[in-house]
Specification:
alpha/beta
C-alpha cells in the first residue's frame, strides 16, 4: 500500500448477497483497504455521497436498480464521474460486458474472485483515479488563472463566457465532432491566459501601444502556450491559444501562417472572438449591431485577413441565431454567394 499514498484508499462493495459481500470485504481488508458495504443500488448511491470511495465493486444483477443503472448515474454526476467502477458478475458473456461499457464501467471481474487479479486491478484503477484527479485539478487551476486574467481588465465584462457559449453553438452549427466543440469552448476561457505575464502598464494602457509595447503584448500567445502545453487534455486548445491572432494572408502573429497553415479551430475561434469584440461596448468604442459587425468582418475578409468560406458560414450562423431575417433565405444566400466570390477574388494569390 505504500505506493498508493499514506491515506488508505476506500472501496465500496455493492452486492445484494451477503456472502458475496463478505468475501470481497475480507479479500480487500487483507490488502489494507478501508471497505464499506451496500446491499442495493439506492444504498450504493447513498454510500457514495456519504463516504466518497476511491473505487466501487458493483454487482450487476440486483433487484430494483441494477448495477448498470447505478453506474450510469455515477458517471453522469460531475462529482463522481472519476470514481472507477468495477462490475462484478457471474455472467461471463460478451453482452454483459458491452452493457457495462455502455454504462461507463471501467473494468470487470468474474465471481468467484481470484485474489491476485482482484488486488492487481484494484491497485491499478485507484492509481489511475488519483492521476485523473490531479489532471482535473490542474485544469481547474488553469481556468481559475484565466478568470483572474479577465478580471484584471474590467472593460471586457463577460467576454469569456460569451465566447464559450457562442463557440459551442457555432461548433455544433458546423457539425464539428464533440471533442473539437469542447476545445472551442475551453479556448473561450483560455485563449488569453498568457496575458497573466503581460505588465499592467501594457495590458491596461488606454492609448495606442508603442512598437516596444506591442512586441510585449504579442508575447501573450506564446506565454499561454507554455502554460497549457504540459497538459495532454489541452492538446486541442493549444493551437487556438497560439494562433488566434494569425491572418489568412500571413500578416498575423506569432508565426505569420498563411491560409490552411492556420489550424482550423484557431480560424473558427478567431471569427467568434472578433465578432464578440465588435458587438461589445468598450471605453474606446460603442457596441456595433450584429449587421454592422458582420460588415466589418466582411471588409477585413476582403483585405485578406480572414478565411472567406468560414466567414460565409459564420454569417449564416449569426443570421440564423441572432438576427431577425430581413430578406428571404434565397436572397440572403444569393448575397452571400456574391460576397463570397468577391472575397475569394480579393484574397487570391498568384
Amino acid at each position: 500500500m505504500n505506493d498508493l499514498d499514506l491515506e488508505r484508499p476506500k472501496i465500496l462493495v455493492v452486492d445484494d448477497h451477503p456472502s458475496s459481500r463478505m468475501t470481497a470485504v475480507a479479500l480487500l481488508s487483507i490488502e489494507g483497504y478501508d471497505v464499506v458495504e451496500a446491499e442495493s443500488g439506492p444504498a450504493a448511491l447513498a454510500q457514495v455521497l456519504a463516504t466518497n470511495p476511491d473505487l466501487i465493486l458493483l454487482d450487476v444483477m440486483m433487484p430494483g436498480m441494477d448495477g448498470y443503472e447505478v453506474c450510469r448515474r455515477l458517471k453522469e454526476d460531475e462529482h463522481t464521474r472519476l470514481t472507477p467502477v468495477v462490475f462484478v458478475t457471474a455472467l461471463d458473456d460478451r453482452r454483459a460486458r458491452l452493457r457495462g461499457i455502455e454504462a461507463g464501467g471501467d473494468d470487470f471481474l468474474t465471481k468467484p474472485f481470484d485474489q491476485l487479479e482482484l488486488s492487481a486491478r484494484v491497485k491499478s484503477l485507484i492509481r489511475q483515479k488519483r492521476l485523473n484527479e490531479d489532471l482535473d485539478h490542474a485544469e481547474k487551476v488553469l481556468f481559475s488563472i484565466a478568470r483572474a486574467v479577465e478580471s484584471r481588465d474590467p472593460n471586457t465584462g463577460d467576454h469569456c463566457e460569451r465566447l464559450v457559449l457562442r463557440g459551442k453553438a457555432f461548433g455544433e452549427f458546423l457539425g464539428l465532432p464533440r471533442p473539437q466543440v469542447r476545445d472551442l469552448m475551453w479556448g473561450g476561457y483560455l485563449h488569453d491566459i498568457g496575458k497573466v505575464g503581460i505588465p499592467d502598464a501594457v495590458l491596461l494602457k488606454q492609448g495606442k501601444l508603442t512598437s516596444d509595447e506591442w512586441d510585449i503584448m504579442q508575447q501573450h500567445v506564446l506565454i499561454g502556450e507554455k502554460i497549457c502545453q504540459p497538459l495532454r487534455t489541452m492538446r486541442g486548445v493549444v493551437p487556438i491559444i497560439r494562433h488566434h491572432h494569425e491572418r489568412w494572408d500571413g500578416s498575423g502573429y506569432p508565426d505569420g501562417l498563411v491560409e490552411a497553415e492556420i489550424p482550423h479551430l484557431a480560424q473558427i475561434f478567431q471569427v467568434i472572438d472578433i465578432y464578440d469584440a465588435l458587438t461589445s461596448e468598450r471605453p474606446y468604442k460603442k457596441a456595433f449591431s450584429p449587421e454592422e459587425a458582420l460588415k466589418i468582418i466582411a471588409e477585413e475578409t476582403s483585405k485578406g485577413w480572414r478565411n472567406p468560406a468560414l466567414v460565409v458560414k459564420f454569417t449564416e450562423f449569426i443570421r440564423a441565431t441572432e438576427m431577425q431575417p430581413t430578406k428571404s433565405s434565397e436572397i440572403q444566400q444569393a448575397d452571400l454567394s456574391i460576397w463570397f466570390q468577391k472575397c475569394t477574388k480579393s484574397t487570391h494569390k498568384s
